Amino acid sequence: GAGVSQSPRYKVAKRGQDVALRCDPISGHVSLFWYQQALGQGPEFLTYFQNEAQLDKSGLPSDRFFAERPEGSVSTLKIQRTQQEDSAVYLCASSWPEGVNTGELFFGEGSRLTVL
Amino acid sequence: AQKVTQAQTEISVVEKEDVTLDCVYETRDTTYYLFWYKQPPSGELVFLIRRNSFDEQNEISGRYSWNFQKSTSSFNFTITASQVVDSAVYFCALSEDSNYQLIWGAGTKLIIKP
Fold first, then answer.
1. Which of A6, A61, A70, B26 ranks highest by number of CB atoms within 10 Å?
2. Which residues of chain A have pLDDT under 50?
3. Residue B17: which pLDDT band, with cuts at 50, 70 and 90?
4. Between B29 and B92, where is the model more confident?
5. Cβ of B23 under 8 Å from any chain A Cβ?
6. Which residues from chain A sit within 8 angstroms of residue B50, using beta carbons?
7. Do B104 and A43 touch (CB under 8 A)?
8. Can you spell out the DSSP letters for chain A?
């Protein structure tokens, strides 16, 4: 596609429910990032993939959060047993290899998760 | 520790006015990168500019200009002759040398009234 695509755009989950958020990066982009953005705040880094390898998951807030990118393209962020504090917009970004160092990331529109 | 501060939570101006968005950063590294991103109501963050710590030359791109001053650890963003389409949340961000993680400010919501 022309840009980074994320789905669903909006997700309402009951506390304790598992959710899966999908990211389709720009074709050919080897680097993929997940960020979490709370209301009125800047994004916070969650995890980074280069192709299918998850090189950094230091930002994942707990072991309830899991991300994968099995074929080096589409990525899924899974949150198990959701809690109210998980409510946020989850942003996916992709870039060419050089974009990792230049910081020129291409973002999707995000998936807004609301946990009731 | 790295930190980015955008003290202006919200700015509202009338169209055609000039407006400056402030960004102050903290880092112990001598090599680092500063960024501005725009987040319109649709939600996707749009890259505007990257500046490395060794290049203090100011940059102008159309109605946008950036003033980088290491002496005050600031990287301010000015929009000249603002337009309604400039309305968005603007984020300043920092990354340290060889670190792909961006550290973001809290953002400044810019409202341009017609």
1. A6
2. none
3. very high
4. B92
5. no
6. 102-104
7. yes
8. --S-EEE-SEEEE-TT--EEEEEEPPTT--EEEEEEE-TTS--EEEEEEETTEEEE-TT--STTEEEE-TTSS-EEEEESS--GGG-EEEEEEEE-HHHHHH---EE---EEEEE-
